[in-house]
Amino acid sequence: MARAPLLQLSGISLTFGGNPVFDGLDLVVQPGDRVALVGRNGSGKSTLMKVMAGLVEPDHGERIVPVGVRVGYMEQEPDLSAFATLGDFAASALDAAERYKVDMVAEGLKFRPDTPVETASGGERRRAALAKLLAEAPELMLLDEPTNHLDIQAIGWLEEQLRDTRTAFVLISHDRAFLRALTRATLWIDRGQVRRQERGFETFEEWREQVWAEEDEARHKLDRKIKAEAKWAVEGISARRKRNMGRVRALQALREERASQIRRQGTAAMELDAGTQSGKRVIEARGLSKRYAEKQIVKNFDLRVLRGDRVAFVGPNGVGKTTLLKMLTGEVAPDEGAVTLGTNLEVAVFDQARATLDFSMSLWDGMVNDPDMRVSGRSDQVMVRGTPKHVVAYLKDFLFDEQQARAPIGSLSGGERARLLLARIMAKPSNLLILDEPTNDLDVETLDLLQDILGEYDGTVLLVSHDRDFIDRVATTTIAMEGDGRATVYAGGWSDYQAQKALSAPDKSVEKPAPKKAEATPAPKEAPKKSGLSFTEKHRLEALPGIIEKLEFEIGKLSELLGDPDLFTREPVKFRKATDMLTERQATLSAAEEEWLTLEEKAQG
Protein backbone atom coordinates (compact mmCIF):
# COMPACT_ATOMS: atom_id res chain seq x y z
CA MET A 1 0.00 0.00 0.00
CA ALA A 2 1.44 3.36 -1.05
CA ARG A 3 2.36 5.71 1.78
CA ALA A 4 1.14 9.30 1.85
CA PRO A 5 3.78 11.88 0.89
CA LEU A 6 5.50 13.84 3.65
CA LEU A 7 5.30 17.10 1.71
CA GLN A 8 3.59 18.26 -1.45
CA LEU A 9 3.94 21.53 -3.35
CA SER A 10 1.29 22.17 -5.98
CA GLY A 11 1.27 24.97 -8.56
CA ILE A 12 3.83 27.07 -6.68
CA SER A 13 4.64 30.45 -8.23
CA LEU A 14 6.95 32.99 -6.64
CA THR A 15 8.37 36.31 -7.80
CA PHE A 16 11.18 38.32 -6.18
CA GLY A 17 11.96 41.85 -7.34
CA GLY A 18 9.83 41.49 -10.44
CA ASN A 19 11.65 38.35 -11.58
CA PRO A 20 9.87 34.97 -11.43
CA VAL A 21 11.76 32.40 -9.36
CA PHE A 22 9.24 29.56 -9.85
CA ASP A 23 6.10 29.26 -11.94
CA GLY A 24 3.65 26.38 -11.63
CA LEU A 25 6.05 24.23 -9.61
CA ASP A 26 4.85 20.78 -8.49
CA LEU A 27 6.93 18.73 -6.06
CA VAL A 28 6.43 15.69 -3.83
CA VAL A 29 8.71 14.32 -1.08
CA GLN A 30 8.01 10.74 -0.03
CA PRO A 31 8.97 8.84 3.15
CA GLY A 32 12.51 7.53 2.84
CA ASP A 33 13.55 10.08 0.21
CA ARG A 34 17.22 11.13 0.23
CA VAL A 35 17.29 14.01 -2.21
CA ALA A 36 20.10 16.25 -3.46
CA LEU A 37 18.85 19.75 -4.32
CA VAL A 38 21.28 21.26 -6.84
CA GLY A 39 21.53 24.31 -9.10
CA ARG A 40 23.62 27.37 -9.83
CA ASN A 41 24.24 30.02 -7.17
CA GLY A 42 21.22 32.33 -7.25
CA SER A 43 18.98 29.77 -8.97
CA GLY A 44 16.63 29.61 -5.95
CA LYS A 45 17.76 26.51 -4.03
CA SER A 46 17.55 28.11 -0.58
CA THR A 47 14.33 29.90 -1.53
CA LEU A 48 12.72 26.62 -2.58
CA MET A 49 13.85 25.01 0.67
CA LYS A 50 12.26 27.86 2.64
CA VAL A 51 9.02 27.37 0.70
CA MET A 52 9.20 23.66 1.60
CA ALA A 53 9.75 24.63 5.25
CA GLY A 54 6.79 27.03 5.21
CA LEU A 55 9.03 30.04 5.91
CA VAL A 56 8.39 31.75 2.56
CA GLU A 57 4.82 32.19 1.34
CA PRO A 58 4.44 31.69 -2.43
CA ASP A 59 2.41 34.09 -4.59
CA HIS A 60 0.29 31.20 -5.83
CA GLY A 61 -0.02 27.50 -5.13
CA GLU A 62 -0.36 25.25 -2.12
CA ARG A 63 1.96 23.59 0.40
CA ILE A 64 0.47 20.41 1.90
CA VAL A 65 1.92 18.64 4.96
CA PRO A 66 -0.15 15.75 6.44
CA VAL A 67 -1.25 15.98 10.06
CA GLY A 68 1.41 14.59 12.40
CA VAL A 69 4.31 15.10 9.97
CA ARG A 70 7.04 17.40 11.27
CA VAL A 71 9.23 19.25 8.78
CA GLY A 72 12.53 20.48 10.23
CA TYR A 73 14.71 23.13 8.61
CA MET A 74 18.35 23.93 9.35
CA GLU A 75 18.75 27.68 9.13
CA GLN A 76 22.00 29.13 7.77
CA GLU A 77 21.77 32.20 10.01
CA PRO A 78 19.58 31.23 13.01
CA ASP A 79 18.18 33.83 15.41
CA LEU A 80 19.52 32.91 18.87
CA SER A 81 18.75 36.23 20.56
CA ALA A 82 16.19 34.70 22.94
CA PHE A 83 18.64 32.11 24.34
CA ALA A 84 21.53 32.29 26.80
CA THR A 85 23.59 29.39 25.44
CA LEU A 86 23.87 27.36 22.24
CA GLY A 87 22.56 24.32 24.12
CA ASP A 88 19.43 26.21 25.23
CA PHE A 89 18.70 27.02 21.60
CA ALA A 90 19.39 23.49 20.36
CA ALA A 91 17.13 21.95 23.06
CA SER A 92 14.36 24.56 22.84
CA ALA A 93 11.83 22.16 21.25
CA LEU A 94 12.71 19.16 23.46
CA ASP A 95 11.46 18.04 26.86
CA ALA A 96 13.91 18.37 29.73
CA ALA A 97 14.36 14.59 29.73
CA GLU A 98 15.47 14.71 26.09
CA ARG A 99 18.25 17.28 26.61
CA TYR A 100 20.79 14.44 26.44
CA LYS A 101 20.12 14.20 22.68
CA VAL A 102 21.65 17.64 22.18
CA ASP A 103 24.75 16.65 24.17
CA MET A 104 25.20 13.51 22.02
CA VAL A 105 24.88 15.43 18.77
CA ALA A 106 27.10 18.27 20.04
CA GLU A 107 29.89 15.79 20.70
CA GLY A 108 29.78 14.58 17.09
CA LEU A 109 29.56 18.11 15.68
CA LYS A 110 32.28 19.38 18.03
CA PHE A 111 30.71 22.31 19.79
CA ARG A 112 30.05 23.04 23.46
CA PRO A 113 26.35 23.46 24.37
CA ASP A 114 27.29 25.73 27.30
CA THR A 115 28.88 28.31 24.96
CA PRO A 116 27.20 31.70 25.54
CA VAL A 117 25.27 32.89 22.48
CA GLU A 118 26.85 36.35 22.66
CA THR A 119 30.38 34.95 22.25
CA ALA A 120 29.56 32.20 19.74
CA SER A 121 31.09 32.40 16.27
CA GLY A 122 29.05 32.09 13.09
CA GLY A 123 30.27 28.53 12.65
CA GLU A 124 29.25 27.57 16.20
CA ARG A 125 25.78 29.05 15.64
CA ARG A 126 25.36 27.00 12.47
CA ARG A 127 26.46 23.84 14.26
CA ALA A 128 23.90 24.57 17.00
CA ALA A 129 21.18 24.89 14.35
CA LEU A 130 22.23 21.56 12.86
CA ALA A 131 22.31 19.96 16.33
CA LYS A 132 18.79 21.27 17.01
CA LEU A 133 17.49 19.64 13.84
CA LEU A 134 19.20 16.29 14.42
CA ALA A 135 18.12 16.13 18.08
CA GLU A 136 14.48 16.85 17.20
CA ALA A 137 14.53 14.09 14.52
CA PRO A 138 11.50 15.27 12.45
CA GLU A 139 9.96 13.10 9.73
CA LEU A 140 11.52 15.32 7.04
CA MET A 141 14.80 17.22 7.41
CA LEU A 142 15.68 20.15 5.14
CA LEU A 143 19.45 20.73 5.27
CA ASP A 144 20.93 23.85 3.63
CA GLU A 145 24.74 23.55 3.38
CA PRO A 146 25.10 21.54 6.62
CA THR A 147 28.82 20.85 6.10
CA ASN A 148 29.86 24.53 6.06
CA HIS A 149 32.05 25.26 9.13
CA LEU A 150 32.41 21.54 9.88
CA ASP A 151 35.84 19.95 9.79
CA ILE A 152 36.43 16.70 7.92
CA GLN A 153 35.97 14.55 11.02
CA ALA A 154 32.62 16.19 11.85
CA ILE A 155 31.53 15.87 8.20
CA GLY A 156 32.33 12.15 8.42
CA TRP A 157 30.27 11.85 11.62
CA LEU A 158 27.31 13.68 10.04
CA GLU A 159 27.57 11.56 6.91
CA GLU A 160 27.34 8.43 9.05
CA GLN A 161 24.31 9.77 10.97
CA LEU A 162 22.42 10.61 7.79
CA ARG A 163 23.38 7.33 6.14
CA ASP A 164 21.94 5.38 9.08
CA THR A 165 18.79 7.45 9.63
CA ARG A 166 15.33 6.41 8.44
CA THR A 167 14.29 10.05 8.28
CA ALA A 168 13.72 11.54 4.83
CA PHE A 169 15.88 14.52 3.92
CA VAL A 170 16.49 17.08 1.22
CA LEU A 171 20.08 18.28 1.07
CA ILE A 172 21.83 21.33 -0.41
CA SER A 173 25.61 21.03 -0.37
CA HIS A 174 28.69 22.01 -2.38
CA ASP A 175 30.49 18.89 -1.08
CA ARG A 176 30.43 16.36 -3.92
CA ALA A 177 31.72 13.48 -1.78
CA PHE A 178 28.99 14.13 0.80
CA LEU A 179 26.24 14.24 -1.86
CA ARG A 180 27.50 11.13 -3.64
CA ALA A 181 27.58 9.14 -0.40
CA LEU A 182 24.06 10.03 0.78
CA THR A 183 21.57 10.78 -2.00
CA ARG A 184 19.27 8.52 -4.01
CA ALA A 185 17.37 11.17 -5.99
CA THR A 186 18.21 14.59 -7.43
CA LEU A 187 16.18 17.78 -7.74
CA TRP A 188 17.76 20.19 -10.22
CA ILE A 189 16.72 23.86 -10.40
CA ASP A 190 17.57 25.36 -13.77
CA ARG A 191 16.13 28.70 -14.97
CA GLY A 192 13.03 28.42 -12.79
CA GLN A 193 12.26 24.82 -13.76
CA VAL A 194 12.67 21.99 -11.26
CA ARG A 195 13.49 18.56 -12.69
CA ARG A 196 13.72 15.31 -10.72
CA GLN A 197 15.49 12.06 -11.45
CA GLU A 198 15.40 8.96 -9.26
CA ARG A 199 19.16 8.65 -9.06
CA GLY A 200 21.58 10.25 -6.66
CA PHE A 201 24.11 13.02 -7.24
CA GLU A 202 26.63 10.51 -8.59
CA THR A 203 24.92 10.69 -12.00
CA PHE A 204 23.88 14.37 -11.90
CA GLU A 205 26.52 15.78 -14.24
CA GLU A 206 25.86 13.08 -16.84
CA TRP A 207 22.11 13.80 -16.60
CA ARG A 208 22.65 17.56 -16.81
CA GLU A 209 24.78 17.26 -19.94
CA GLN A 210 22.18 14.97 -21.55
CA VAL A 211 19.35 17.45 -20.80
CA TRP A 212 21.41 20.34 -22.17
CA ALA A 213 22.37 18.37 -25.28
CA GLU A 214 18.69 17.60 -25.96
CA GLU A 215 17.86 21.27 -25.38
CA ASP A 216 20.59 22.39 -27.78
CA GLU A 217 19.39 19.92 -30.40
CA ALA A 218 15.81 21.16 -30.09
CA ARG A 219 17.01 24.78 -30.32
CA HIS A 220 19.13 23.92 -33.36
CA LYS A 221 16.15 22.34 -35.10
CA LEU A 222 14.01 25.37 -34.30
CA ASP A 223 16.74 27.68 -35.63
CA ARG A 224 16.95 25.68 -38.86
CA LYS A 225 13.19 25.84 -39.28
CA ILE A 226 13.19 29.60 -38.71
CA LYS A 227 16.05 29.96 -41.19
CA ALA A 228 14.21 27.94 -43.84
CA GLU A 229 10.99 29.90 -43.34
CA ALA A 230 12.87 33.22 -43.42
CA LYS A 231 14.54 32.16 -46.68
CA TRP A 232 11.11 31.40 -48.15
CA ALA A 233 9.88 34.79 -46.99
CA VAL A 234 12.74 36.55 -48.79
CA GLU A 235 13.09 34.47 -51.97
CA GLY A 236 9.41 33.85 -52.46
CA ILE A 237 8.59 37.55 -52.69
CA SER A 238 10.03 38.01 -56.16
CA ALA A 239 7.88 35.17 -57.51
CA ARG A 240 4.60 36.46 -56.13
CA ARG A 241 3.41 39.76 -54.78
CA LYS A 242 0.80 38.22 -52.53
CA ARG A 243 2.19 36.43 -49.51
CA ASN A 244 0.86 33.35 -47.78
CA MET A 245 0.01 35.34 -44.65
CA GLY A 246 -0.67 32.22 -42.60
CA ARG A 247 2.87 31.05 -43.23
CA VAL A 248 4.25 34.51 -42.36
CA ARG A 249 2.33 34.45 -39.07
CA ALA A 250 3.69 30.96 -38.36
CA LEU A 251 7.23 32.28 -38.93
CA GLN A 252 6.59 35.09 -36.47
CA ALA A 253 5.29 32.58 -33.93
CA LEU A 254 8.48 30.52 -34.33
CA ARG A 255 10.60 33.61 -33.72
CA GLU A 256 8.60 34.49 -30.63
CA GLU A 257 9.07 30.95 -29.31
CA ARG A 258 12.83 31.24 -29.89
CA ALA A 259 13.01 34.64 -28.21
CA SER A 260 11.13 33.36 -25.16
CA GLN A 261 13.63 30.60 -24.48
CA ILE A 262 15.78 31.37 -21.43
CA ARG A 263 19.45 31.03 -22.17
CA ARG A 264 21.57 29.02 -19.79
CA GLN A 265 23.74 31.07 -17.50
CA GLY A 266 27.34 30.88 -18.60
CA THR A 267 30.25 30.10 -16.34
CA ALA A 268 32.17 32.87 -14.66
CA ALA A 269 35.01 34.22 -16.80
CA MET A 270 37.59 33.59 -14.09
CA GLU A 271 41.28 33.86 -14.86
CA LEU A 272 44.48 33.87 -12.82
CA ASP A 273 47.59 35.73 -13.94
CA ALA A 274 50.74 34.29 -12.40
CA GLY A 275 52.55 37.59 -13.01
CA THR A 276 56.30 37.64 -12.36
CA GLN A 277 57.74 34.18 -11.88
CA SER A 278 58.83 33.51 -8.32
CA GLY A 279 62.07 31.82 -7.43
CA LYS A 280 62.15 28.02 -7.56
CA ARG A 281 62.07 27.83 -3.75
CA VAL A 282 58.91 29.56 -2.50
CA ILE A 283 58.95 28.71 1.24
CA GLU A 284 61.57 27.02 3.41
CA ALA A 285 60.48 26.29 7.00
CA ARG A 286 62.86 24.64 9.49
CA GLY A 287 62.15 23.54 13.07
CA LEU A 288 58.91 25.49 13.45
CA SER A 289 57.24 25.35 16.86
CA LYS A 290 54.28 27.37 18.06
CA ARG A 291 52.21 27.23 21.23
CA TYR A 292 49.27 29.27 22.54
CA ALA A 293 48.94 28.69 26.32
CA GLU A 294 48.42 24.91 26.67
CA LYS A 295 47.74 24.37 22.96
CA GLN A 296 50.62 23.17 20.78
CA ILE A 297 50.06 24.18 17.13
CA VAL A 298 53.20 22.61 15.59
CA LYS A 299 56.40 21.20 16.98
CA ASN A 300 59.72 20.92 15.14
CA PHE A 301 57.99 21.19 11.74
CA ASP A 302 59.96 21.32 8.49
CA LEU A 303 58.56 22.14 5.06
CA ARG A 304 59.89 23.10 1.67
CA VAL A 305 57.45 24.46 -0.91
CA LEU A 306 58.68 24.72 -4.50
CA ARG A 307 57.25 26.78 -7.34
CA GLY A 308 54.12 25.12 -8.76
CA ASP A 309 53.31 23.04 -5.66
CA ARG A 310 49.66 22.74 -4.53
CA VAL A 311 49.74 22.13 -0.79
CA ALA A 312 46.52 21.30 1.11
CA PHE A 313 46.24 21.62 4.92
CA VAL A 314 43.67 19.36 6.60
CA GLY A 315 42.67 18.64 10.18
CA PRO A 316 40.01 19.33 12.83
CA ASN A 317 38.63 22.81 13.39
CA GLY A 318 40.81 24.73 15.85
CA VAL A 319 43.88 22.58 15.32
CA GLY A 320 45.81 25.56 13.91
CA LYS A 321 45.71 25.21 10.11
CA THR A 322 45.24 28.94 9.50
CA THR A 323 47.90 29.77 12.11
CA LEU A 324 50.42 27.50 10.37
CA LEU A 325 49.51 29.07 7.05
CA LYS A 326 50.20 32.54 8.50
CA MET A 327 53.53 31.39 9.90
CA LEU A 328 54.56 30.08 6.50
CA THR A 329 53.77 33.43 4.87
CA GLY A 330 55.49 35.49 7.58
CA GLU A 331 52.31 36.97 9.06
CA VAL A 332 52.74 35.17 12.41
CA ALA A 333 56.13 34.59 14.03
CA PRO A 334 56.98 31.07 15.32
CA ASP A 335 58.19 30.53 18.88
CA GLU A 336 61.09 28.51 17.51
CA GLY A 337 62.51 27.87 14.07
CA ALA A 338 62.60 30.06 10.99
CA VAL A 339 60.79 30.62 7.73
CA THR A 340 62.62 31.80 4.61
CA LEU A 341 60.49 33.18 1.81
CA GLY A 342 61.55 32.96 -1.81
CA THR A 343 62.19 35.83 -4.17
CA ASN A 344 59.71 37.86 -6.26
CA LEU A 345 56.65 36.67 -4.33
CA GLU A 346 53.31 38.29 -5.17
CA VAL A 347 50.69 36.98 -2.73
CA ALA A 348 46.88 36.89 -3.12
CA VAL A 349 44.71 35.74 -0.20
CA PHE A 350 41.19 34.26 -0.11
CA ASP A 351 40.09 34.28 3.56
CA GLN A 352 37.33 32.04 4.87
CA ALA A 353 35.88 34.81 7.08
CA ARG A 354 35.41 37.09 4.01
CA ALA A 355 36.95 39.73 6.32
CA THR A 356 38.12 41.85 3.40
CA LEU A 357 34.51 42.40 2.30
CA ASP A 358 32.66 45.42 3.71
CA PHE A 359 29.04 44.23 3.74
CA SER A 360 27.69 47.80 3.94
CA MET A 361 29.33 48.77 0.65
CA SER A 362 27.84 48.11 -2.77
CA LEU A 363 29.67 45.70 -5.06
CA TRP A 364 30.62 48.68 -7.22
CA ASP A 365 32.14 50.67 -4.33
CA GLY A 366 33.79 47.59 -2.87
CA MET A 367 35.66 47.04 -6.13
CA VAL A 368 36.69 50.61 -7.01
CA ASN A 369 37.77 51.37 -3.40
CA ASP A 370 40.05 48.33 -3.21
CA PRO A 371 43.61 49.79 -3.12
CA ASP A 372 44.85 46.97 -5.38
CA MET A 373 42.15 47.67 -8.00
CA ARG A 374 41.73 51.46 -7.81
CA VAL A 375 42.25 53.44 -11.03
CA SER A 376 43.43 56.94 -10.16
CA GLY A 377 40.77 59.58 -10.77
CA ARG A 378 38.12 57.11 -11.97
CA SER A 379 35.07 55.92 -10.03
CA ASP A 380 33.84 53.52 -12.70
CA GLN A 381 37.05 51.66 -13.59
CA VAL A 382 39.02 48.90 -11.88
CA MET A 383 42.51 47.67 -12.63
CA VAL A 384 42.33 44.06 -13.84
CA ARG A 385 45.75 42.43 -14.19
CA GLY A 386 47.29 45.74 -15.23
CA THR A 387 44.51 46.92 -17.58
CA PRO A 388 41.67 49.34 -16.68
CA LYS A 389 38.19 47.84 -17.12
CA HIS A 390 34.70 49.14 -16.39
CA VAL A 391 33.59 47.84 -13.00
CA VAL A 392 30.25 46.47 -14.30
CA ALA A 393 31.95 44.71 -17.21
CA TYR A 394 34.34 42.99 -14.78
CA LEU A 395 31.52 42.05 -12.39
CA LYS A 396 29.62 40.54 -15.33
CA ASP A 397 32.60 38.25 -15.91
CA PHE A 398 31.73 36.79 -12.50
CA LEU A 399 27.98 36.52 -13.27
CA PHE A 400 26.83 39.69 -11.48
CA ASP A 401 24.40 41.93 -13.37
CA GLU A 402 24.29 45.74 -13.30
CA GLN A 403 21.46 45.79 -10.74
CA GLN A 404 23.51 43.65 -8.34
CA ALA A 405 26.52 45.96 -8.84
CA ARG A 406 24.57 48.70 -7.04
CA ALA A 407 23.31 46.41 -4.25
CA PRO A 408 25.07 46.04 -0.87
CA ILE A 409 27.54 43.18 -0.53
CA GLY A 410 25.60 42.06 2.56
CA SER A 411 22.61 41.18 0.36
CA LEU A 412 24.59 38.54 -1.55
CA SER A 413 24.28 34.82 -0.92
CA GLY A 414 27.25 32.91 0.45
CA GLY A 415 28.18 31.63 -3.01
CA GLU A 416 27.94 35.12 -4.50
CA ARG A 417 30.21 36.53 -1.76
CA ALA A 418 32.75 33.82 -2.55
CA ARG A 419 32.56 34.70 -6.26
CA LEU A 420 33.07 38.40 -5.45
CA LEU A 421 36.14 37.61 -3.36
CA LEU A 422 37.52 35.50 -6.21
CA ALA A 423 36.93 38.47 -8.55
CA ARG A 424 39.03 40.68 -6.28
CA ILE A 425 42.00 38.35 -5.87
CA MET A 426 42.00 37.42 -9.56
CA ALA A 427 42.18 41.07 -10.62
CA LYS A 428 45.83 41.36 -9.64
CA PRO A 429 48.82 39.27 -10.74
CA SER A 430 50.05 36.78 -8.15
CA ASN A 431 52.41 33.85 -7.98
CA LEU A 432 51.49 32.59 -4.48
CA LEU A 433 47.81 31.98 -3.85
CA ILE A 434 46.53 31.45 -0.29
CA LEU A 435 43.06 29.85 -0.29
CA ASP A 436 41.43 29.45 3.13
CA GLU A 437 38.16 27.50 2.65
CA PRO A 438 37.49 28.73 -0.92
CA THR A 439 34.84 26.12 -1.77
CA ASN A 440 32.19 27.08 0.81
CA ASP A 441 28.88 27.87 -0.92
CA LEU A 442 30.22 27.66 -4.49
CA ASP A 443 28.07 25.76 -7.01
CA VAL A 444 29.34 22.71 -8.90
CA GLU A 445 30.05 24.61 -12.14
CA THR A 446 32.11 27.31 -10.39
CA LEU A 447 34.01 24.66 -8.43
CA ASP A 448 34.82 22.88 -11.70
CA LEU A 449 36.09 26.12 -13.23
CA LEU A 450 38.15 27.00 -10.14
CA GLN A 451 39.71 23.55 -10.23
CA ASP A 452 40.63 23.93 -13.92
CA ILE A 453 42.12 27.39 -13.32
CA LEU A 454 44.25 26.13 -10.42
CA GLY A 455 45.42 23.28 -12.65
CA GLU A 456 46.63 25.78 -15.27
CA TYR A 457 48.00 28.36 -12.79
CA ASP A 458 51.78 28.76 -13.09
CA GLY A 459 52.12 29.91 -9.48
CA THR A 460 52.02 28.10 -6.13
CA VAL A 461 48.90 27.33 -4.08
CA LEU A 462 48.50 26.86 -0.31
CA LEU A 463 45.00 25.55 0.40
CA VAL A 464 42.95 24.98 3.57
CA SER A 465 39.78 23.00 2.88
CA HIS A 466 37.39 20.41 4.30
CA ASP A 467 36.16 19.48 0.82
CA ARG A 468 37.62 16.02 0.22
CA ASP A 469 36.73 15.91 -3.46
CA PHE A 470 38.27 19.34 -4.15
CA ILE A 471 41.50 18.39 -2.34
CA ASP A 472 41.72 15.22 -4.41
CA ARG A 473 41.30 17.20 -7.63
CA VAL A 474 43.78 19.98 -6.80
CA ALA A 475 46.43 19.06 -4.22
CA THR A 476 49.82 17.55 -4.99
CA THR A 477 50.75 17.46 -1.29
CA THR A 478 48.57 17.13 1.83
CA ILE A 479 49.68 18.20 5.32
CA ALA A 480 47.61 16.48 8.01
CA MET A 481 47.42 18.39 11.31
CA GLU A 482 46.25 15.96 13.97
CA GLY A 483 46.64 17.96 17.18
CA ASP A 484 49.33 18.14 19.88
CA GLY A 485 51.71 19.75 17.41
CA ARG A 486 51.70 16.82 14.97
CA ALA A 487 51.80 17.85 11.30
CA THR A 488 52.66 15.16 8.75
CA VAL A 489 53.35 15.57 5.04
CA TYR A 490 51.76 13.12 2.59
CA ALA A 491 52.08 12.93 -1.17
CA GLY A 492 48.89 13.58 -3.15
CA GLY A 493 45.38 14.58 -2.14
CA TRP A 494 42.86 13.45 0.48
CA SER A 495 42.41 9.87 -0.82
CA ASP A 496 46.19 9.45 -1.13
CA TYR A 497 46.61 10.68 2.45
CA GLN A 498 43.98 8.22 3.70
CA ALA A 499 45.64 5.31 1.87
CA GLN A 500 49.13 6.20 3.15
CA LYS A 501 47.81 6.68 6.68
CA ALA A 502 46.18 3.25 6.57
CA LEU A 503 49.44 1.67 5.42
CA SER A 504 51.36 3.34 8.23
CA ALA A 505 48.88 2.24 10.93
CA PRO A 506 50.38 -0.16 13.55
CA ASP A 507 50.10 -3.82 12.58
CA LYS A 508 50.84 -6.69 14.97
CA SER A 509 52.31 -8.95 12.30
CA VAL A 510 54.07 -6.48 10.00
CA GLU A 511 55.68 -3.23 10.98
CA LYS A 512 55.13 -0.72 8.19
CA PRO A 513 57.23 2.43 7.82
CA ALA A 514 55.63 5.70 8.88
CA PRO A 515 55.14 8.36 6.23
CA LYS A 516 57.94 10.82 5.76
CA LYS A 517 57.36 13.85 7.93
CA ALA A 518 60.02 16.39 7.20
CA GLU A 519 60.15 16.33 3.41
CA ALA A 520 58.45 19.41 2.05
CA THR A 521 57.87 18.29 -1.53
CA PRO A 522 57.08 14.58 -1.84
CA ALA A 523 57.01 12.85 -5.21
CA PRO A 524 54.83 15.08 -7.38
CA LYS A 525 51.30 13.97 -8.08
CA GLU A 526 50.35 13.61 -11.73
CA ALA A 527 48.95 16.92 -12.94
CA PRO A 528 45.19 17.10 -13.53
CA LYS A 529 44.30 15.99 -17.02
CA LYS A 530 43.67 18.94 -19.29
CA SER A 531 41.48 19.13 -22.33
CA GLY A 532 43.02 19.79 -25.74
CA LEU A 533 41.97 23.43 -25.50
CA SER A 534 43.94 26.34 -24.13
CA PHE A 535 42.28 28.57 -21.55
CA THR A 536 41.46 31.17 -24.23
CA GLU A 537 40.12 28.53 -26.63
CA LYS A 538 37.93 27.04 -23.90
CA HIS A 539 36.23 30.36 -23.21
CA ARG A 540 35.98 31.10 -26.93
CA LEU A 541 34.13 27.79 -27.33
CA GLU A 542 31.74 28.78 -24.54
CA ALA A 543 31.16 32.21 -26.09
CA LEU A 544 30.58 31.08 -29.69
CA PRO A 545 26.98 29.77 -29.25
CA GLY A 546 25.92 33.23 -28.03
CA ILE A 547 27.75 34.90 -30.93
CA ILE A 548 26.12 32.53 -33.41
CA GLU A 549 22.70 33.15 -31.90
CA LYS A 550 23.17 36.93 -32.17
CA LEU A 551 24.26 36.66 -35.81
CA GLU A 552 21.27 34.46 -36.65
CA PHE A 553 18.96 37.00 -35.01
CA GLU A 554 20.50 39.87 -37.01
CA ILE A 555 20.29 37.85 -40.24
CA GLY A 556 16.63 37.20 -39.51
CA LYS A 557 15.97 40.91 -38.99
CA LEU A 558 17.79 41.86 -42.20
CA SER A 559 15.92 39.14 -44.10
CA GLU A 560 12.65 40.58 -42.82
CA LEU A 561 13.66 44.04 -44.00
CA LEU A 562 14.70 42.82 -47.44
CA GLY A 563 11.44 40.88 -47.67
CA ASP A 564 9.67 44.17 -48.40
CA PRO A 565 9.16 44.04 -52.23
CA ASP A 566 9.01 47.84 -52.46
CA LEU A 567 12.16 48.57 -50.47
CA PHE A 568 14.48 48.69 -53.50
CA THR A 569 12.41 51.27 -55.38
CA ARG A 570 11.41 53.23 -52.25
CA GLU A 571 14.79 53.34 -50.45
CA PRO A 572 17.57 52.04 -52.73
CA VAL A 573 20.39 53.17 -50.40
CA LYS A 574 18.83 51.38 -47.43
CA PHE A 575 18.27 48.30 -49.60
CA ARG A 576 21.94 48.27 -50.68
CA LYS A 577 23.23 48.72 -47.11
CA ALA A 578 20.94 45.99 -45.79
CA THR A 579 22.08 43.65 -48.59
CA ASP A 580 25.74 44.30 -47.79
CA MET A 581 25.13 43.78 -44.07
CA LEU A 582 23.27 40.53 -44.75
CA THR A 583 26.11 39.23 -46.91
CA GLU A 584 28.70 40.21 -44.29
CA ARG A 585 26.79 38.60 -41.39
CA GLN A 586 26.16 35.41 -43.34
CA ALA A 587 29.89 35.13 -44.00
CA THR A 588 30.66 35.85 -40.32
CA LEU A 589 28.11 33.23 -39.25
CA SER A 590 29.66 30.60 -41.50
CA ALA A 591 33.11 31.40 -40.08
CA ALA A 592 31.80 31.26 -36.48
CA GLU A 593 30.09 27.91 -37.09
CA GLU A 594 33.29 26.54 -38.64
CA GLU A 595 35.34 27.82 -35.69
CA TRP A 596 32.89 26.26 -33.21
CA LEU A 597 33.12 22.91 -35.01
CA THR A 598 36.93 23.01 -35.02
CA LEU A 599 37.15 23.86 -31.31
CA GLU A 600 34.51 21.29 -30.38
CA GLU A 601 36.44 18.56 -32.23
CA LYS A 602 39.65 19.68 -30.53
CA ALA A 603 37.96 19.61 -27.12
CA GLN A 604 36.81 16.05 -27.74
CA GLY A 605 40.37 15.06 -28.54
Descriptive report:
This protein has five domains: 7-206, Rossmann fold; 214-265; 267-346 and 430-530, P-loop containing nucleotide triphosphate hydrolases (Rossmann fold), CATH 3.40.50; 356-428, no CATH class; 534-605, Orthogonal Bundle (Helix Hairpins). Helices cover 40% and strands 21% of the residues. The chain has helices spanning 45-53, 86-90, 99-109, 122-136, 152-164, 176-182, 204-235, 245-260, 321-328, 363-368, 391-397, 402-405, 414-425, 444-456, 468-474, 494-504, 535-562, 567-570, 572-603, and strands at residues 7-16, 19-29, 34-39, 60-64, 71-74, 140-144, 168-172, 185-190, 193-197, 281-292, 295-306, 310-314, 336-341, 347-350, 381-384, 387-390, 432-436, 460-464, 477-483, 486-491. The strands form five sheets. Strands 5-6-7-3-8-9 form a six-stranded mixed β-sheet, sandwiched between helices. α3 crosses α4 (122-136), α7 runs antiparallel to α8 (245-260) and α17 runs antiparallel to α19 (572-603).
Indicate the topology.
Layout (H helix, E strand, L loop, with lengths): L6 E10 L2 E11 L4 E6 L5 H9 L6 E5 L6 E4 L11 H5 L8 H11 L12 H15 L3 E5 L7 H13 L3 E5 L3 H7 L2 E6 L2 E5 L6 H32 L9 H16 L20 E12 L2 E12 L3 E5 L6 H8 L7 E6 L5 E4 L12 H6 L12 E4 L2 E4 H7 L4 H4 L8 H12 L6 E5 L7 H13 L3 E5 L3 H7 L2 E7 L2 E6 L2 H11 L30 H28 L4 H4 L1 H32 L2
Parallel strand pairs: 3-7, 3-8, 5-6, 6-7, 12-18, 12-19, 14-17, 17-18
Antiparallel strand pairs: 1-2, 1-4, 8-9, 10-11, 10-13, 15-16, 19-20
Helix pairs in contact: 3-4, 7-8, 7-17, 17-19
